[in-house]
Amino acid sequence: MPLIRPFAGLRPVPERANDVVAPPYDVLNSEEARERAAGRPLSFLHISRAEIDLPEGTDPYDPAVYAKAAENLKKLVDEGVLRREEKPVYYVYRLTMGDHVQTGLVAAASVADYDSNRIRKHEFTRPAKEDDRVRQIEALNAQTGPVLLAYRSQDDIDAMIDSVTRGAPEYDLVADDGIGHTFWVVDDPDLIQRLTEGFDRMEAIYIADGHHRSAAASRVAASKNGPPDAMSRYFLSVIFPHKQMKILDYNRVVKDLNGLDEKTFIEKVATAFDVNASDTPVSPAQPGEFGMYLNGQWYRLNIHPERIPADPVARLDVSLLADNLLEPVLGISDPRTDPRIDFVGGIRGLGELERRVDSGEMAAAFSMHATTMDDLMAVADANEVMPPKSTWFEPKLADGLVSHVLD
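^ thats the sequence. predicted structure below, dont judge the formating
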């Protein structure tokens, strides 16, 4: 079976798309989702975060939440807000955030190729989050949150996708967070075949964001055990050329200096880094460079070159900071579980780092150079995993523009 295939998407009728479109389920907590969906009865948050329609304080993993999501999805279908495509198609999806534009293909991606690592991973998953997505898929008989994938940019594939954007879009809207979402239907049989064959020639494609969604799809496919061409053996994805994707920095804040006074702390940092005070906030311009904010002062840290190994994981900036500062100086050996460390997505800016330190909540902050797509693919190709909180992708895919029904 092919790496990707067209599918009959379940999606809003054009005049309702703006009412349905919603942020991804995992970027909002229950309270934020409830607030964002207020006065928006058609918002897809009523499906992706259905606890907002149950009493406040309802556990998001309560069985009633999945049942409510299925009820809300059926209601949108019954009311004609969502309609199933009459035949399998691809879609082209363009995201616009300020001056940044990326254009990719919406397709059903092969679970078998995920299982064989042709669709490559770079993160561990957590069982509770996997279980949540499995229950959601099973309750809805559909995948509603797309997995963000990347392929190594190829001129012929890029050109085929771009050619679709010369026609009139099905949707062209700006969500309430200012992100533009433009959507075209690809129903030309010849182009569908050429896109399917073009992707099938690829050695691999890469998960950028959505490891829990893809892992859950694999579990659901195994439980259904349908024939090889069953739609349950494919999962909803949007695949972008890697050169167009935007990864922002993913910064760190720590609560204390591990019992050290400021002078001793800086001296210990200087065993692995060149430390220079900066009059302005430090946004690292290159790998191996870090910003540190401590007691109202910014510092520029440059790691000593001999401390950069060849290993594709150990040479990542997130690893260099962990292995040369967070663990040996601050005693933070497991960033996944240590309550003394927190993570701040680059979309919030350096001002958020200053705020959290100046408030006294945190003792120090570290600004990072963003991980690159080449780094991500090198780690995935080596069958390795990145440290936690290595990538922050922007802009985010919307929920609700298209869903993948499993039968």
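Residues 4-247+394-405 form one domain.
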